[in-house]
Amino acid sequence: MNKLWVRISLTYVAIMIFLIIIPTGIYLTIQADNINLVQPDGGPSEQIIDGHQPSFLTRINRYGQSELVIGLVRILFSISMVGMMVGVISSRGLAAPLNNLAKAARAVGSQDLTQRIKVKGTSEVREVAVAFNSMAAALEEAEDLRNNMLADIAHELRTPLTVIQGNLRAILDDVYELDKVEVARLYDQTRQLSRLVEDLHDLALLEAKEFSLNIDEFDLKNMIDDVAAIYQPIFDDQGIKLDLDLLDESVVRGDCARITQCLNNLLNNALRHSPEGGTVRISLEDQAERAVISVKDTGTGITDDHLPYVFDRFYRVDSDRNRRSGGSGLGLAITQALVQAHGGKIQVISDGLNMGSEFRIELPIEDLNL
To answer: pLDDT tens digits, residue range 298-314?
Structure first.
């Protein structure tokens, strides 16, 4: 009785019987006086006894061989059989997609994330199938991202660890002397490891929406001026021009340290991709109740096939760029997460290879100025 097709079949039969018995009973009651019931021996019909004709049910019981009664019973039986067959067929048609869904769900539970079900049947069944396929695709994509992230983390950690182990082994084997130069090299590798771990921790908190921001009023123009003053000697040393085009004032509410971190990441990215003699331009403007910070360079640029992945973790446009010159691969991902935590958005614009690129941070002034 717990099978869906059994329950629906019995429901069909009950409905069909109900629809036949009621009309049949009404019809026979109305036609009772006109039924020509014959005695079993072929004698005359019942006579009125003491002024009363036998009841309809009594007459039916006595003369149950009447052609009318037999025909109605046959019709009732036939319709019941038809109702049962229709119930079995229709219920099994409903149960089949559910069985397929249960089978696919068990496969997904067993880590077979490639499972999909055919989109067919009624609109409700099709909607469930589409939702299941979307869920399975999202799980498969998340699993691929997780595996890729683990591989990237292992790769990023392996290099500094290898350098540290190699230098320590060389010192133990008296290949190098334990002087300040060697200690400084080892310390530099530990700093890279520490930075990578901190970036991963911050990114995990941001994606889990558990990262705390210290919201307060600050002037975006003053913040950009301070950052530019720190980076100016670095730009000068690499022969890159740093231009500023800022509003006189742009006071907003947000986490000044984190917005500063975002600008640092964008400037570091511009430094890595801008050649000597290039220009990096920082601008600040208000557009439709949004404060827009733009960092535009005249560097290597980004092709269309790389643009969708610029903010992915550990993604590098130039795959040949090593970690020392290319960063940890988390800066832009963290920048995007921090901007989104402030209710803003970030986008990258580039006309192609060697055409430079522009990163734009948009912060909603209406939300920050509460």
So the answer is: 988 999 988 988 988 77
**How far from the centroid of its chain's Cα atoms is residue 89's Cα?**
37
Classify residue 32: in a domain, yes or no: yes
Judgement on whether residues 222 and 357 belong to the same structural domain of the protein: yes
Distances (CA, A) of 205 to 40, 201, 216, 259: 93, 6, 21, 16
Please give the angle made by the CA atoms of 348, 343 and 302, to the nearest 5 degrees: 10
Dist CA 252 CA 260 (whole Å): 13
From 184, 207, 230, give the residue that closes a domain: 207
- The two three-digit tokens of residue 129, written as one number: 């199938």
Could you say which residues of the chain have pLDDT below 70? 1-10, 12-13, 16-17, 19-73, 75-76, 79-80, 83-84, 86-95, 316-328, 366-370
d(C-alpha 224, C-alpha 338), whole Å: 17
